[in-house]
Amino acid sequence: MTVDLSSSFGERDQEISFIQEITLAGVTTEAPMGSSVWTDPLSLSLFVSETMFDQLLAGLPDEEQRYTGTLYINTSEPGLLEEKIRSMHQCDAGDFHIYNQAQAAQEEKQSKLLLTVFITGFILLITGICIANIINTITTSIALRRREFAMLKSVGMTPKGFNRMIRYESVFYGIKALSFGLPISLGINYLLYRAMSDGFQFSFTLPWNSYIVAVVSVLAIVFITMLYSSSKMKKENIIDSLTNWSA
């Protein structure tokens, strides 16, 4: 295989070109560890030995014969290996740099875990407060309407009709809450997307699974709370409720 190597250098970007005969040992679809492969269709990535690399480098001018060497090591004890390398190195600290990928991955994992715990705890706290407010509001509303329910029962409303009314009101309360919450949530999601899109390139998508869980949870909480509060009304005496209302 014949390869044409060229390089631009000097004040006027003079270009030199030389032909080098290279024998290919094979073609691979996987690059060695730590190597990056260009995806440009007009470029060619060659993986050669150190001797061949020195021969190719010798064809360039002296001012162009500079490169950065990188050594990748795969080990089961990255911390111990890093300590040994640092203890063996006798040059200035600026001559080399050690990047412990395992340690970096561990630190990133710990940061994600800490952030996940914090966000999860915050969400659970807010969710608990919201659920408590929903239960308290609905329970208080049902308790204040006990005279109204007693009057409806006194004019002939059956228990089946009463339960149907409670179910309809539960659906109405849930839809009313979602009609306010969902648009606000969509607006907040879009604002967060605009704020993060400056540093990251990604498309705007909605967490549909989270929205489905939120809708089902709100309807379930409202429905269960309404049933629990209305069940207490069934035990009250109609005459006592109307008497207290008249008084």
State the main characteristics.
single chain; 2 strands; mainly alpha; 7 helices; 247 residues; two-stranded antiparallel ribbon
Question: Could you characterize the architecture of this molecule?
Answer:
With 247 residues, this protein is mostly helical. The chain has three domains: 2-72, no CATH class; 73-123, no CATH class; 145-246, no CATH class. The chain has helices at residues 50-58, 78-88, 101-144, 146-154, 159-196, 208-234, 238-246, and strands at 2-9, 14-21. Strands 1-2 form a two-stranded antiparallel ribbon. Helix 4 (146-154) crosses helix 7.
| Widest sheet: strand ordering | 1-2
Helix content: 55-70%
Q: Helix count? A: 7
What overall geometry do the principal axes of the alpha carbons give?
Answer: elongated
The total count of strands amounts to 2
Q: Describe the largest sheet.
A: 2 strands, antiparallel
Strand residue percentage: 5-15%
How many domain units? 3
| Oligomer class | single chain
